Amino acid sequence: MITLKNLEKVYQTDEIETVALNNINLAINKGEFVSVMGPSGCGKSTLLNMMGLLDIPTNGIVEIDEVEINGWKDKKLARFRNHKLGFIFQSFHLINDLPVLDNVELPLLYRNGVSGKERKRRAQEALGKVGLSARTKHYPGQLSGGQKQRVAIARAIVGQPDIILADEPTGNLDSKMGMEIMEILENLNKEENTTVIMVTHDEKLAKRTNRIIHLFDGMQVN
Amino acid sequence: MTRYILINLLKRKQKQKRITLLIELFLSFLAFFFIFSLIVREINNTKYPLGFNYDKLYSFNPFYIGKSEDMDANHIAQKELISSIQLYPGVEAISNYNGSPFFSKGYLNPSQPVNGNGISIPAKQINLMHVQDGFGKALDLKFIEGRWFTPQDNASNIQPVVLTQNLKEMMFGNSSVIGNTIELQGEKCKIVGVCNVIKHKGDYSYPEPTLFVRIAHGDNVQYKMPRGGNGSIVTSAFLLKSQIETSAEFESELYQYLKTNHPDFQVLITPMNETRNKYIRSTILPLVITLLIITALFFNVLFGMFGVLWYNISQRKSEIGLRMAVGASKTAIYRQFITEMLLLTTIAIVPGIVIAIQFPILNILNMEPIVYVVAIISAAILIYSLVVLCALMPSSRATKIQPAIALHEE
Ligand SMILES: Nc1ncnc2c1ncn2[C@@H]1O[C@H](COP(=O)(O)OP(=O)(O)O)[C@@H](O)[C@H]1O
Ligand SMILES: [Mg+2]
Along the 410 residues of chain B, how does pLDDT read in single tens digits? Predict the structure, then answer.
């Protein structure tokens, strides 16, 4: 499903070069639930951004569904992200000025041929899956951390993507709420066969996944 | 998409931020409208020529200092003085003049609206000049149709009047008007001529629609002066036109002549040239200062608006990152931000336009409607362009970086 070949990412800031990823070779299969672990600053987020096409690698190749992504134009990338990928971030990244339902429908807004009515219906449905049907008119500021993350999950799944990329989705939550989020992701993986790649610091959660990728200093370790 | 953006715009929380922006845009529009009105008015005024020749003109003010207390005797003496001046060598024309002074502010309006052709022109829009037959020649007025007053008008049983072209067009449009009547202070007047527009208040003034009313006196005059008009009274203000350009020599010789031949009068003769020079000196400086203040105000409003807009959009970088992550293309982001800002601007300036339109409708500042129309359009174009610029620049910066980076900017 996702293949990374000799992937390298170097950040260049004011004469300092940071090698965030160094010669990563990785393949993730369809329907897998993979976790990524490693100390802070080792390149986990960078790795997810590469897989999510949110940033351009310095060297190497990203393939999704055996299609090489390198050099794609903005429109094509945007379309691809919209249809194939769903993102969940540690800091939720909800638009605080907008009610929950509007946050969730966002990916569908950038998809051709989905009417306003249809957007609302599907957003409502996605919110149902994360147990937030009753909170559609609330604003993010009125929700708990766990609820915010469930809104973010609803937004990630509303477009029925093949792949969910979750960067420390439980990082800002207590362990009970974290477990709830984990269960939602597991259900998605099992019931809808969605591929899930999750960065986590939590050993307990990581152990429940199919496979753990360990990163250290931008390199993969086993 | 537009509908979505509009609904979203109204639904978004932090209304206060948007209301601030709306107020800023609304006030900026009014400020720009005001600034442009003034500038367009100045430019528009320069479009018209002065409309008369001042090179050979003098203001001529005789004051009676004789012994007689009898008003009639005064008038008779003044009449003799004027007849004598008409015969003085080098004098081309002389006319009693009762109106607002040349090259100066001040007004003389009728006391009631002037009616004609079913149209009523508000009194304050009309400049009234009571003049004698020599006035047309003194000013070198050009005639679009008809003629200036002549002594034959004494025989008319209706007060004859001459209109400037702009006044005629306000009342009669493009049709021919000689022989038509208008009503001035309850009295019918007959139009005998239409002449060129004049800017008698000076080069930088607006050519006021002007109505010339003939002053006539004597037993052989058939018509009655309009009620409330003071044209029947001979005042001590005259315009004198010499055959050659104004000169100190002519002036002093005339003084000398009057001193010997009309000792009952003290006379003040002022070349129009001098009056005009004074006017220009006293107008240019305030004009330049006003222009500087306006320029400062303009940039103040401009930067204020730019700042508020810029702040509003740059604050939303991480939102832009997120929208790109969920599948918005750069084009979609631009389109959204621009549409959003245009809608917001429209909401803000519609009330502004409604207010601005009252100015020509109610004729608040006494300018030509075209000035306001140009000012409204320019102000709107300026605001819309600024808004588009302010929407484009921060969103362009945000879309230039990768979404991963944008997401981390707050
Ligand atoms: N935009 C950036 N500019 C410069 N350096 C960056 C940037 N993003 C990440 N880095 C650096 O790259 C390294 C890996 O970062 P990251 O992938 O965020 O680590 P992790 O998610 O594992 O904590 C770190 O040293 C970090 O400082
Ligand atoms: Mg990270």
Answer: 677 777 777 777 667 777 888 888 899 899 889 888 888 888 888 889 999 999 999 999 988 887 777 767 777 788 888 889 989 999 999 998 888 889 998 888 888 999 999 999 999 889 999 998 999 999 999 999 999 999 888 888 889 999 999 999 999 999 999 999 999 988 899 999 999 999 999 998 889 999 999 987 665 666 766 544 444 445 678 899 999 888 889 999 999 999 898 888 889 999 999 999 999 998 888 888 888 888 888 888 778 877 877 777 777 888 889 999 999 998 888 888 888 888 989 999 999 999 999 888 887 766 778 888 999 999 999 999 988 888 888 778 777 888 888 888 76
Calculate how close chain B gets to A44, using CA atoms only, in Å.
13
Q: Complex ipTM, two decimals? A: 0.94
Residues forming a β-bridge with A196: A33, A164
Provide the residue count of chain B: 410
Find where tokens 């018509």 sit: B223
Query: Which among B135, B137, B113, B140 is positioned nearest to B124, based on CA atoms?
Result: B113
Rounded to two decimals, what is the model's pTM?
0.72
From chain A, which residues contact B within 8 Å (Cβ)? 49, 52, 54-56, 74-75, 78-79, 81-83, 87, 89, 93, 95-99, 102, 106-107, 109-111, 116, 139, 141, 155, 159
Contact B86, B153 (CB under 8 A): no
For residue A53, what are the contacts with CB-CB under 8 A and spacing of at least 6? A62, A64, A69, A72, A77, A80, A81, A85
- The distance from CA B110 to its chain's CA centroid, rounded to whole angstroms, is 18
Q: CA–CA separation, A197 vs A34, rounded Å?
A: 5
Q: Which residues pair with B95 in a beta bridge?
A: B239
Q: Which of A7, A45, A51, A56 to mutate to test the pocket of ligand 1 (most atoms within 8 A of CB)?
A: A45
**Interchain contact, A106 vs B404, CB within 8 Å:** no
Query: What secondary structure does DSSP assign to A8-75, as a single string?
Result: EEEEEETTEEEEEEEEEEEEE-TT-EEEEE--TTSSHHHHHHHHTTSS--SEEEEEETTEE-TT--HH
